Amino acid sequence: MGVMSCSRKECENIMCDTYVNSVGYVCGECQSEFKEYLDSEGKTDLTEGEIKRELEKFMSTTKDSYVQGDKMDIDDFFNQHRR
């Protein structure tokens, strides 16, 4: 039996037990982040094909790109990064 590494860019998780054809292995952390991604994009009630297309797009993003944080408006975001 080989190592089943997550197929997401820069994800180092191994021994994944979820495999999606045309996508590859998806670890639990990336599955959770994918749910957050769909929620942040307002994508609900998707067909299987739509989910698969979104997952393919998502898996090409860097891990932790969509990690949930505190909600804030754009001004607060920029104020937080002022020097």
Summarize the SSE layout with pairings.
Elements: E1 19-20, E2 24-25, H1 28-40, H2 48-59, H3 74-80
Antiparallel strand pairs: 1-2
What does this 3D model show about the protein?
The chain has 83 residues and is mainly α. It is 39% helix and 5% strand. It is built from three helices and two strands, in the order ββααα. The protein has a two-stranded antiparallel ribbon. α1 packs across α2 (48-59). It is globular. The model has no long low-confidence stretch (mean pLDDT 87).
Compact description:
With 83 residues, the protein is mainly α. Helix content is 39%, strand content 5%. It has one domain.
Strand order of the largest sheet: 1-2
The beta-strand count equals 2
Shape descriptor: globular
Q: Approximately how much beta-strand content do the residues carry?
A: under 5%
| Overall average pLDDT | 87
Rg computed from alpha carbons, rounded to a whole number of angstroms: 15 Å
For the record, the count of structural domains works out to 1
- Strand/helix succession: EEHHH
Structural class: mainly alpha
Biggest sheet descriptor: 2 strands, antiparallel
C-alpha termini separation: 52 Å
Number of helices: 3
- Uncertain runs: none
Q: Percentage of helical residues? A: 25-40%
What are the main properties of this structure?
2 strands, 83 residues, mainly alpha, two-stranded antiparallel ribbon, 3 helices, single chain
